[in-house]
């Protein structure tokens, strides 16, 4: 079993990754504006 510190580091890492997506979705809802999926998934190819 791994120690809690490593688990916390992993959780923190993924929360940092998700923060920009969450912020973009929140802003889109609050401003009633469309979500640009390409901006949400920067650097990745858009789904076809």
Oligomerization category of the chains in this entry = single chain
- Count helical runs: 2
Round the Cα radius of gyration to an integer and report it. Answer: 15 Å
Task: Please tally the β strands and state the result.
Answer: 0
- Element order, helices and strands? HH
Mean pLDDT: 77
Strand content: under 5%
Percentage of residues assigned to helices = 55-70%
User: Total domains, how many?
Assistant: 1
How would the global form be characterised? elongated
N-to-C CA distance: 40 Å
Question: What's the story with the biggest beta sheet?
Answer: none
Catalogue the unreliable spans.
43-48
Structural class: mainly alpha
Organism: Salmonella enterica subsp. enterica serovar Poona
InterPro entries: Tscrpt_reg_HycA (IPR021285)
Protein name: Transcriptional regulator
Task: Briefly characterize the structure.
The chain has 48 residues and is mainly α.
């Amino acid at each position: 079993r791994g120690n809690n510190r490593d688990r916390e580091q992993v959780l923190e890492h993924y929360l940092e990754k998700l923060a920009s997506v969450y912020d973009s979705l929140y802003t889109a809802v609050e401003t009633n504006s469309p979500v640009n999926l390409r901006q949400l998934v920067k650097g990745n190819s858009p789904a076809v």
